[in-house]
Write a structure and sequence with these properties.
By secondary structure, the protein is α+β, with helices and mostly antiparallel strands. The protein has one domain. Helix content is 34%, strand content 20%. It is globular.
């Protein structure tokens, strides 16, 4: 699937889509704050956590240029009480 380059104008639609997924399925298990926007405002690099067994999401972020920084247990629990393994990425 082709992925077009990230553009600021596309962010509101992406956030709206993610909100619909979250409301329907509970993913992501923690709703993100505006971490990427805050990072950009302070000339910092955005980071994200991806649940390790979510192969399509892992492939998407890696193809988009995100770089794996490490793998660890999450600091949160899923609704079923399990602690997922996460892959931690830094922005492209």
């Amino acid at each position: 699937m082709p992925v077009r380059p990230r553009q600021p104008a596309g962010l509101p639609a992406c956030v709206a889509s993610l909100r619909r997924v979250h409301e329907a399925s509970g993913y992501p298990s923690r709703w993100p704050d505006t971490a990427a926007a805050v990072a950009a405002e302070h000339d910092l690099v955005p980071v994200l956590d991806v649940v390790a067994d979510s192969a399509p999401a892992v492939a998407l972020y890696e193809q988009a240029g995100w770089h794996l920084a490490g793998i660890q247990l999450a600091t949160w629990t899923d609704p079923d009480g399990t602690v997922p393994v996460i892959r931690c990425y830094v922005g492209p």
